[in-house]
Amino acid sequence: MATLTLTNTERFLINQEGQDFSHEAKTFIKIRELAIKNLKDLEFPTPKLEAWKYTNLREVAKQEFRPQSAINVLGSRLKPHLIPNLDAYVLVFVNGFFVPELSKVSEKKDGDFIVTNLNHAKAKYIKLVEPRLGFLTRDKDQFFGNLNAAFSQDGAFVYVKEGKQLDKPVHVINLVDGDLVVAYPRNLVVAEKNAEAHVVVSYETLDTQSALSNVVNEAFVAEGAHVTIDKIQNENSNTFHIGGDYAQQDKNSTFTLNTIPVSGKLIRNNVTVDIDGEGSTANLFGAVCLNGDIHVDNQTLVNHSKPNCDSNELYKCVVNDNASSIFNGKIYVNKIAQKTNAFQSNANILLSDDAKAFSKPQLEIYADDVKCSHGCTIGQFDDEALFYLRARGIREETAKKVLLDAFIGEVLDNLKVDAVRTHVEALIAKNFVSKK
Amino acid sequence: MLKIKDLKAEINGKEILKGLNFEVKAGEVHAIMGPNGSGKSTLASVLSGREEYEVTGGEVEFAGKDLLDLAPEDRAGEGVFLAFQYPVEIPGVSNINFIKTAVNEVREYKGLPVLETKEFMKLLKEKQTLVGLSGKLANRSVNEGFSGGEKKRNEIFQMAMLNPKLGILDETDSGLDIDALRVVANGVNELKSSDNAFVVITHYQRLLDYIVPDFVHVLYDGKIVKSGTKELALELEEKGYDWIIEEYNK
Predict the structure, then answer these.
(1) What is the pLDDT of residues A397-407, one digit of tens each?
(2) B92 vs A394: CB contact, 8 Å cut-off?
(3) pLDDT value at residue B5
(4) Taking an 8 Å Cβ-Cβ cutoff, which residues of chain B contact chain A?
(5) B14: how many CB neighbours lie within 10 A of its CB?
(6) Phi first, then psi: what are they for A414, rounded to 5°?
(7) Which of A36, A348, B91, B231 fits as disulfide partner to A357, beta carbons 3.0 to 4.6 Å?
(8) How confident is the model at residue B130 (pLDDT cuts 50, 70, 90)?
(9) What is the complex's ipTM, to 2 decimals?
């Protein structure tokens, strides 16, 4: 009898079947079909691929993750996942599906902005969604970008009209509930000319023994517009998280991404920013404080396609226990992108003998009149500073916390909403302490 | 207050202090002088609890307690203060938060309540004036970008804020111009009382024009080889250390 051996990709895809997207407009179904076609040609990522050298997905490939809609999510279960004192439009998704009764949308006729779920926008605002959705995730080679494009259930749609701004931030809360769940939340943020938007995206767990979050954030920043995304990854230690953040910038725009991985089993972030207009600035900041067995892998790519643009990249990592942190940052400067100012820095502090940090900065420069710098450090506590604090009567434990707060504070200074900063500080402080 | 008996200490297997005896009573100012490499800074380091130094013999009693048994922060809590020869820069930690944390941790050690912000600010202003430390430095990171003089004033300012029983000044005069030296000395003189004591470690007699010691000791080869009053410092200034070394080697 012949046995049929399925590849990891085939087996994974079989488990994703059964979602019905037939109600969508043809143009959106095409995106899904193309993504599935791409996926069929792709190997499930293994460490043999350079981009996955330090992150092994064997356990992800092995498990039978399936999409599952959640039933009956009560407001009382949501409450612990809100950010205290944050005045925001809140959009709630469970396992990738929108929960309207827990959300607060805003789509006033003739209003300055639209804050709603993507499925609704695909039907009602097709002219705003169609020219953008999936444009930044078309890369054939990206397994998880294609996976999300193919199976994404829903997500947030934030649209700000020309010259307008959100009157308060949008907080998108993604929750996972149930075992062997895979969720595909996908957010689309659009800021028209001279518009401003601030979106806080948090990933949290209701209850799961095993889950996969495969998320995408896609942002379009038009001329003179400013978009900030704060991404807080706080899922439980049974959850794999593979995310892609993509932004495209027109001239004189600013895009800022603050990435804060706090907990999970494995977190991978692929960040891609295309600076596609003169006079623009891209800011990528990461505050990575880890304990326990978590594995966090941040990959960034900044494409300087046009002249006179700046990019600032600062990832700071504090790694405790058995945790590992990977940073791989690439800056690509096109030959026409003269007067580029690209700065990249990755600093790591290891707090235990078993903690690991890998850092790989990459510069690829084809223009000749640019200022690019990159640097990485991996070290331990500054013993001199620690002794100095202790010699002034500050207990060792307090002194260490003072030094870690100072180290990571340089990154957190970029969180401009006080409630978000306070919330993140509290989450991070827990991770300074060993879990063992 | 401080009793050091036959103290021996080494770093990386090299013995630096070779049986040092020394006693300080409340209300006294002691100067410790000596040529380079005699062990002056090692003594300061051992008293403040630097872990790189290993104490191999002897004892140090401070206010009735075994000082060598205490962690550096507990020594500070008991009232020992070391003004660093090379104050450390700590980026990201503001000078004001640093000193506030220190003041309150020391108060907690002593079983005192935390200082209210208003009281703290009052104390801060008073002590800043005492050492002529610009208020602008309060919000800067600890010692970061401070000039040499500002760093040393910051040390004396911290000492004033913490009000220790025993202040040890480790070559506080090095790298200071005469004006800064005066300000630093003035700070020490203001803090001096019948309840506290100071040990001034210095290479030069210059500082002792401003901080007048009750006793002067010469440290050589890890031991105190000669003690006297302030006149000894003047003699050293005039004749150098060679005559003492010769006397010791006889």
Answers:
(1) 999 999 999 99
(2) no
(3) 96
(4) 48-51, 71-73, 75-77, 82, 84, 87-93, 97-99, 101-102, 105-106, 109, 141-142, 158, 162
(5) 6
(6) -85, -5
(7) A348
(8) confident
(9) 0.95
